[in-house]
Design brief:
Layout: E1 3-11, E2 14-21, E3 26-30, H1 38-43, H2 46-49, H3 57-64, H4 75-92, H5 96-99, E4 107-111, H6 124-136, E5 143-147, H7 154-157, H8 182-199, E6 204-208, H9 215-224, E7 232-234, H10 247-255, E8 261-263, H11 274-278, E9 284-285, H12 289-292, H13 295-307, E10 311-312, H14 320-332, E11 341-342, H15 351-354, E12 355-356, E13 367-369, E14 379-380, H16 382-386
Parallel strand pairs: 4-11, 5-6, 6-7, 7-8, 8-9, 9-10
Antiparallel strand pairs: 1-2, 2-3, 4-13, 12-14
Helix pairs in contact: 3-4, 6-8, 9-10, 13-14
Bound molecules: magnesium ion (MG).
Magnesium ion binds near residues 208, 234, 235, 239 and 265.
Length: about 400
């Protein structure tokens, strides 16, 4: 089998990559929401892959892996990797999870990242209300994640929250960085207490915190919430779009507290997790398969983290339905350091009308049953999908 073409489009909010072959088998990959600018980056990979056998996934990757970087520049390569596994699975007539070593679990736990309303005010009561709404969601999530501090508008909408200069940019990323005020720190701890009051010990709480913290503030906060058994504090000093892992800073924080520290969603490739893992700089890593270099890359990192007593909770909130399929397949195969991956939804809602193969409901009691179709096990209804293609991509499914 030979690769004959690579196509790119944005369907609704989701960038989608399609790899075509001379045997009529195609594969799909995904990137995180928006990112129309990935088009050129994806299409320029074609000359490196034209004529290659897509079922030799790793051999193909050796020809394009050098074209990736930290988020968002790893997503084109990652989307192609996922599409290659989809083809390899379809060609063999087996689900992708079998190609990755077989499933360790029949259902995968997810945590809530995507089913939420944007918060506009940030009192303990606001957090309690929002937490209650997430708990009531029909998915029955067993873990929810909340954005606080620099990973929210708290930093700009709560007066005197931080001593930092407010930095903004039309490009996504959390740019404000600096010390919290004493008032800001107290408010955060009160918000955590209010959320835990709602959650009790039924549903776990993770907090997406930054980046932007100073190391001393991060240590103070992590110690202040030790009594609440938070599952993890995410991206305190680096993360999201920070183009470096900051392992040395995370290590100082992790050494100073029993609260688990988490990072990794922006990191590209296993090499850039090496120091974080080998120095045990964090307790949980959270690469995103659509940014790290793909699903086999994520699996390798999970195995290496497990060897060092580090947990794995993959990122994924913006990856859409194709990204969801990739997450389900790879997470089914991870070792016992797997905690949960960040649930992602189809946007807009009509995504659920154009894709078949998903369980209904998708999430039950906070878990997704691993499905068994060949490849990623999902398929586009081409006739229904076509109407949503941008004019320039109307040939996408041809
Ligand atoms: Mg995050």
């Amino acid at each position: 089998m030979k690769i004959t073409d690579i196509r790119f489009t944005v369907i609704g909010e989701s960038p989608v990559v399609r790899v075509l072959t001379d045997e009529g088998i195609d594969g799909f990959g995904a990137a995180e929401r928006a990112k129309p600018y990935l088009r050129t980056h994806v299409l320029e990979l074609l000359p490196a892959l034209l004529g290659e056998d897509p079922t030799n996934v790793e051999r193909c990757m050796t020809r394009i892996r050098h074209r990736g970087g930290f988020k968002p520049w790893g997503s084109a390569v990652s989307a192609v990797e996922i599409a290659l596994w989809d083809i390899a699975g379809k060609a063999a007539g087996i689900p992708v999870y079998k190609l990755l070593g077989g499933k360790v679990r029949d259902r995968v736990r997810v945590y809530n990242g995507a089913v939420r309303k944007e918060m506009t005010s940030f009192t303990p009561e606001d957090y309690a209300r929002d937490t209650r709404a997430q708990m009531a969601s029909p998915e029955g999530f067993t873990i929810i994640k909340q954005g606080i501090a620099f990973h929210s508008q708290m930093k700009s909408s709560v007066p005197d929250f931080t001593l930092a200069d407010q930095r903004t940019s039309p490009l996504p990323g959390y740019l404000t960085r600096g010390p919290l005020t004493e008032k800001g720190m107290k408010l955060l701890v009160e918000c955590v207490a209010a959320m835990k009051d709602v959650l009790g010990d039924d549903v776990g709480l993770a907090l997406d915190c930054g980046p932007g913290w100073t190391v001393p503030d991060a240590i103070r906060f992590a110690r202040s919430v030790e009594e609440y058994n938070i599952l993890w504090l995410e991206d305190l000093v680096a993360g999201d779009y920070t183009p470096s892992p900051a392992a040395h800073l995370f290590r100082e924080i992790t050494r100073a507290t029993s609260t688990p520290i988490h990072t990794g969603e922006q990191i590209y490739l296993r090499q850039n997790f090496r120091e974080l893992i080998e120095t045990r700089a964090v307790s949980v890593v959270g690469p995103d398969p659509c940014d790290v270099g793909g699903i086999a890359e994520l699996k390798w990192i999970a195995e290496y983290a497990d060897l060092h007593g580090i947990l794995m909770a993959p990122h994924g909130t913006g990856n859409g339905i194709v990204g969801l399929a990739a997450l389900v397949h790879v997470c089914a195969t991870l070792p016992d350091n797997y905690v949960a991956f960040e649930y992602t939804t189809g946007r807009p809602e009509w995504w659920y009308d154009i894709v078949s193969g998903l369980p209904d409901p998708i999430v039950r009691d906070g878990f997704i049953d691993v499905w068994d179709g060949p490849g990623l096990g999902i398929a586009f209804d081409v006739e229904r999908s076509r109407q949503y293609l941008p004019e320039q991509d109307r040939y996408f499914f041809d």
